[in-house]
């Protein structure tokens, strides 16, 4: 066991924690400030017994309200590529999408700034000018002067259906046509078409996805086929519906839950789904942050750009396989005894790879287990010069168990303890345990991450930390898998069987797909989703589809 | 052999300005709005006043910040030394508190930045989840001022950033300016994009073309505004509010189509500039200079009268290697060893050099018997008073510039427990913006005395 620490706390080496810590709700309960109406962090499920059964929850016709959603930068660009073949990054000067709940597509965060409005105008004008350079191609007709108006009328209908992702109603088609006639009288035919296109590309029906529903089903207002088509394509492709999906809407195939599931299945099988779903798990798991990481190379001489890039490729390959490959069980996320590596990365992990290309390799038994022992997690959630049980514990709590942790108190200095010889990381963070005002919160965080102490600040396996044997015991306080554990193997065993962790994945996907947080009114949808997820053996690809079958996805929701 | 051709004898007519701009080959040179900037008959309009916010992060060290001397004859401390030559145009303020922030509770830097220009406690998320941080609760003082003095310029206000999104992305640490409750206004970190937005544009050598273009834009914007209004009518309250900002934006663009500027002699639109990477730490100073140049010229060319310059975000992590500090700004601000304290002071001194650069640039631009700086006021501020303690007492405020004669420089004004709400009221009044309170009314007693006078 490591050296006993000296009698008192070594002030210079540990984090100072202010007395004001006690004024927060750090008494052992996870309390999230200011959330009010949020659904409980812990949810029922197999073995959990905390939530309603689907039958109970679905007895009343309620569903969460659907907020108005705007296209994100990626969605805007993908849509324009599909609509007009645009490939020159038209959103590059847009303000960044605001992040909420770790995602960039949450409706409530989508405010519109003056710069954004200017950019919509600038891009619309620019793209319209580009598109009318080949007028016959754009219009689908090359009319004589006498036939111009009829050509444009047809264009408004067909282009409008694609741009607004639904047929235009007669009144709006008439308004657009009248606008074109006005502009034609002033400037001529081709400029008038350019004006028309400029209007289309700035229209709120293009830039937003308004939903009104049509008719009721089971006491709830059902979304129209076209509205569901947009929900499906923006969820699974981050882009507009293709012709087949719009036709499915038109022919009524999206008017039944089964029809929606069938189209979702088709979309998920399309290559376009890869990038869209990758954007989900990259945001959920912070898997994109490797680029921001810097390491102290005197402490970690084996850190290099090569290693960084290898970790990135590994995570991409592993997670893509997890959602699209042969084994898409959640359990594999935690317990995989394999990863994807080239020879150099395999060597880092103590495994062997046949060649220099990236391929599946078996991990050394007992040393590694799934995503939580990959560099994309371990190196990102660490400091430049040491591991970070707090960052790792916080990630597990927040991203994998969906618990909100309160922020540190106002006047605490957030300074990681300096590296000192002959003290392990565990010892350096001891103050969190000793100081009563810190312990309340930190007992939730540090012990979760301390069990990963066999992996240093760049994710390498170690038996010694600063010359002292690693102690990788940890503990989870609260949740349905509370208790102590030792090492990544036991930690991932707990998480793999935790109903709370299973429910958490479902909620993360819910937020991403619907662009909002779950509310009490979503109890039915969530209960159904949890049940379907469990029934499938917690299959992630299945979960992606199961979501579209819920009432939250297919109905408008909100106050009746 | 033929005889040499005689030189034609004709008077060479002086080239018209337009011809010069076209260049020898007849190609139009993309300089902005020179038609609008051409000397015109004297306007009956009073000369404009301008407001600038210069924000830097992590507060100051009072030991090297606070001056000595008297109210009328302050002696600058080490950090403010770069402002010595501008002292006659500078007012140093002490004893002003961000009382709303003190009563707010929460993470120091986030509270600081959301209270800083709103003078209100932050808004915790209601039915959305942003974590345990808050957002600005209503419009900031720069926007309140722009609503009055920015009505006729091409841009009501402009937001210049130096790696403002780099540390935290699009969350509440990264914004200093708000258009309304939870409506942050992003700063633009890329000088090229700012240039594109402000100084690029249509061909100024053909004003009738510009009129046509504006007419076309107006037709389109009219239609889009109508569409937005119709859609709004069909939506519930929350969604209506969301579209309101969009609709206001569209109408605002329409309003400013063809806005003419009162550009003075100092207006000389800068080139677009080549910037290799505006997000690299090492480029921080160079990007800052580019932004300051653009800001100064935006004022001189009267395309805006309100501008904010945001150096990084709250709790900035910038590493100021160029003054010999190798840890991040926020980290250093919390260390108490002498080396760190000295390093932090060099960082703060460096920011004051940047203030001097910007104010100096404005002061070298002549305008109506004085300089552009004389008709401007730059508010220098930070989101916390002292980085080490996150205090909101005795915030480090400076005013540089005369606001058209309303503010006399060369003074050190010491207040006792006054709220920053009231500093903003005084500033607004100095800029001829009528106002008796600002921000949370419970914290605003009226304009701070002695600032205007």
Present the secondary structure layout:
The complex is a heterodimer of chains A (560) and B (453).
Chain A: H1 54-57, H2 73-84, H3 114-131, H4 135-139, H5 148-163, H6 170-187, H7 189-202, H8 204-207, E1 216-217, E2 220-221, H9 225-236, H10 243-250, H11 257-269, H12 272-284, H13 305-324, H14 330-335, E3 338-341, H15 343-348, E4 359-362, H16 375-378, H17 389-400, H18 425-428, H19 431-434, H20 436-450, E5 464-465, E6 468-469, E7 473-476, E8 483-486, H21 487-497, H22 499-514, H23 523-535, H24 540-546, H25 551-554
Antiparallel strand pairs in A: 1-2, 3-4, 5-6, 7-8
Helix pairs in contact in A: 3-7, 5-6, 5-7, 6-7, 9-10, 9-11, 12-13, 17-20, 22-23
Chain B: H1 17-22, H2 34-37, E1 50-55, H3 62-65, E2 68-69, E3 74-75, E4 90-97, H4 99-102, H5 108-116, E5 123-124, E6 134-135, H6 141-149, E7 158-162, E8 177-180, E9 183-185, H7 191-198, H8 207-233, H9 237-256, H10 284-300, E10 306-311, H11 329-333, H12 338-363, E11 366-367, E12 370-371, E13 376-381, E14 397-400, E15 411-419, H13 420-430
Parallel strand pairs in B: 1-10, 1-13, 4-15, 7-10
Antiparallel strand pairs in B: 2-3, 4-14, 5-6, 8-9, 11-12, 13-14
Helix pairs in contact in B: 7-10, 8-9, 10-12
Q: Give the uncertain stretches of chain A in residue-range form.
A: 1-49
Terminal Cα span of chain A: 63 Å
Largest sheet of chain A: 2 strands, antiparallel
Helix tally of chain A? 25
What descriptive keywords fit this protein?
heterodimer, A: 560 residues, mainly alpha, two-stranded antiparallel ribbon, 8 strands, elongated, B: 453 residues, alpha/beta, 7-stranded mixed sheet, two-stranded antiparallel sheet, 14% strand, disordered N terminus
